[in-house]
């Protein structure tokens, strides 16, 4: 029994190592027919395993690719997005409405820039038109992310004394903010100057502090929240 558990653990370790290796190969060459870059021999070599170990786990290359896609698009990889918001709400307790939005936005933008799986997600997104299974994985990823963000944004709005304007719902805010975050991240990777970290001014009605400037994403997120929400009847003036 002990030997069985040891073999199972070794098999799981090999499996994880080769999925990680495949993701690294995708990250190195996330262009064109991206999945064609992932070969069993390359994966095994990068994971310091043998090709025999590869085929001991996966019956064929297609089976490996199915697991690799699930690995790369695992919804828990975006847990950092929701955790940043939760942590920042706690850390910035007592902060004004604009200050809290700015702080959360900046932390989220920096977190996404440091996430190597974002480029892989975009590369796999490019296959959506020709691969129904890929589309389903991406849909699951985004819906799972929204399910996690909705209660976080509910708490944030309650803390700010704000509510959604009609016809918007919290899920619409979650989708719009994530799309804004991803879109500006993509643009900044290509043209950083187009997504400045200091606009040289603050949003209207917010005092400008040159020591803590507003970047484009933070200011755009603030404008979006302003447009989609309003003060709750019982909310205090936090602006």
List keywords for this structure.
239 residues; mainly alpha; 3% strand; elongated
Beta-strand proportion: under 5%
> How much helix, percentage-wise, in residues?
55-70%
Mean pLDDT: 86
Q: What is the oligomer described by this structure?
A: single chain
Quickly count the helices: 10
Termini separation comes to 64 Å
Q: Radius of gyration, Cα only, in angstroms?
A: 22 Å
Decide which structural class fits the backbone: mainly alpha
Q: What's the helix-strand series?
A: HHHHHHHHEHHE
**Which segments are poorly predicted (pLDDT under 50) over 5 or more consecutive residues?**
none
SSE layout and pairing:
Layout: H1 2-28, H2 40-46, H3 51-57, H4 61-72, H5 79-91, H6 97-113, H7 117-125, H8 132-160, E1 162-164, H9 170-190, H10 216-228, E2 229-231
Antiparallel strand pairs: 1-2
Helix pairs in contact: 1-2, 1-4, 2-3, 5-6, 5-8, 6-9, 6-10, 8-9, 9-10
Overview of this structure, please?
The chain is mostly helical. It is built from 10 helices and 2 strands; from the N terminus they run ααααααααβααβ. Helix 1 (2-28) crosses helix 2 (40-46). The N and C termini lie far apart (64 Å). 23% of the residues are buried. The mean pLDDT is 86.
The gist of it:
With 239 residues, the chain is mostly helical. The protein has ten helices and two strands.
